[in-house]
Amino acid sequence: MFKADVAEWILSMTTTSERATATAGDLMQESSARGNLWFWSSLLRTTASLVWRAWTAEPFYLTGLALRAVLLQMMLLAALSIAALLISVASLLSSQGWQFHSSGNMVEVSATATGPWPILIGIFSFFVCHYYLGKWLARRAAHREWAAFLSFLILDRVLWAAFWTALPIPVVMDAPLLQVFFTGIEVMAVFLGIERGKRLSRRLA
Predict the structure, then answer these.
(1) Domain map of the chain by residue range?
(2) pLDDT at 100 exceeding the cut of 50
């Protein structure tokens, strides 16, 4: 049943729930004779075909939705980054305090280290931003969530690549593992948000 549940969940983001259930059932039935490799490859081909069909049916709408999603992402990340910065500063002032160093007639003031909290707060903010973005996409692209997400992801990467090229920052551009890490968080958060948005939609229907 695990394969059927996964297949139905994936397909439900490309078509109606009824059709996703029927297609997953057909794949399960055929896979009993053809094996697991055929099942997963057929699921991938079917999903790709449905995603392409959804995008070609409404290319301007999905591209516009992706652009709005990128702008929303930027606003959310900016707001959450400011909030994270304020929290980090407040934590620094309240728990770590300040260090005063005197040298002759000069007094140097510096803050002590804050530990991993600024990084953890930043990662959490990044997750929350994309979780909300997933819920936002689910409300505007029902049964086309895969097409909407992939349109967003491609446009997002193109725009950010252009940004970092215009303002080259080698530390960011030359850190593939860091990019993979944050992409993983982004994908997980968006799909958790999409699933939550779908459940809320079903509850309100």
Answers:
(1) 1-57, 58-204
(2) no
